[in-house]
Write a structure and sequence with these properties.
The structure holds two protein chains of two kinds.
Chain A: E1 4-5, E2 10-14, E3 19-21, E4 24-25, E5 33-39, E6 46-52, E7 60-61, E8 64-69, E9 74-79, E10 88-97, E11 102-106, E12 110-115
Parallel strand pairs in A: 2-12
Antiparallel strand pairs in A: 1-4, 3-9, 5-6, 5-10, 7-8, 8-9, 10-11, 10-12
Chain B: E1 5-7, E2 10-13, E3 19-24, E4 31-37, E5 44-50, E6 53-56, E7 65-68, E8 75-79, E9 88-95, E10 104-105, E11 109-113
Parallel strand pairs in B: 2-11
Antiparallel strand pairs in B: 1-3, 3-8, 4-5, 4-9, 5-6, 7-8, 9-10, 9-11
The chains are: A mainly beta, B mainly beta.
Chain lengths: 116, 114
């Protein structure tokens, strides 16, 4: 089974509007972490936001917030007030404990296009 | 401070040749990871180092792939007898430790095997 599922291959949003990028995950471990990364056309993966499985509140970082619904195993990224520079690929990732270290699993990504 | 750096940024080689890809992690980060990203996909785990040792190499696709980190800092991913299917972006990431830390990625090396 896929550990991370991103069902939106591509999304369009109007500049200055909010957009939600979907992510669902699969794990039986109670201790895990969820991440979102941005990958612009330059290729570098840029860390955006982190949510721990035991965190009671949704994570927020500036214009980014993570809508964490534990029972539904979803960790959607919300970008408020979209900017043209937000156009990029966005990857959801999960960290779960392994024997020696935390293993990271990435989704297939969502390509976000911000329209002027 | 400096982030993760990777060299070369692009590498074009012929089928059957040997290539080396280098990663210089963030100073002080003990954990280092290699990933491979094919077009339109997310990164796939290859190998993890804690210090000098490869703690988990379960993601390496076959024995043509090998990686080292002799002094616990810079790492080199080595691919022997390259095949066209090896063409991808190879990403390196580092984190402060193996547990509970965010991974920070380098810009990647785009490998093209002709």
């Amino acid at each position: 089974a896929q550990k991370i599922t991103q069902t939106q291959p591509g999304m369009f949003v109007q500049e200055k509007e909010a957009v939600t990028l979907d992510c669902t995950y699969d794990t039986s471990d109670p201790s895990y972490g969820l991440f979102w990364y941005k990958q612009p056309s330059s290729g570098e993966m840029i860390f955006l936001i982190y949510q721990g499985s035991y965190d009671q509140q949704n994570a927020t970082e500036g214009r980014y917030s993570l809508n964490f619904q534990k029972a539904r195993k979803s960790a959607n990224l919300v970008i408020s007030a979209s900017q043209l520079g937000d156009s990029a690929m966005y990857f959801c990732a999960m960290r779960e404990p392994g024997d020696n270290f935390n293993k990271f699993y990435f989704g297939s990504g969502t390509k976000l296009n911000v329209k002027p | 401070g400096a982030g993760v750096s990777q060299t070369p940024s692009n590498k074009v080689t012929e089928k059957g040749k040997y290539v080396e890809l280098r990663c210089d992690p963030i100073s002080g980060h003990t954990a280092l990871y290699w990933y491979r990203q094919s077009l339109g996909q997310g990164p796939e785990f290859l190998i993890y180092f804690q210090g000098t040792g490869a703690a988990d190499d379960s993601g390496l696709p076959n024995d043509r792939f090998f990686a080292v980190r002799p002094e616990g800092s810079v790492s080199t991913l080595k691919i022997q007898r390259t095949e066209r299917g090896d063409s991808a972006v190879y990403l390196c990431a580092s984190s402060l430790s193996a547990r509970g830390d965010t991974q920070y990625f380098g810009p990647g090396t785009r490998l093209t095997v002709l």
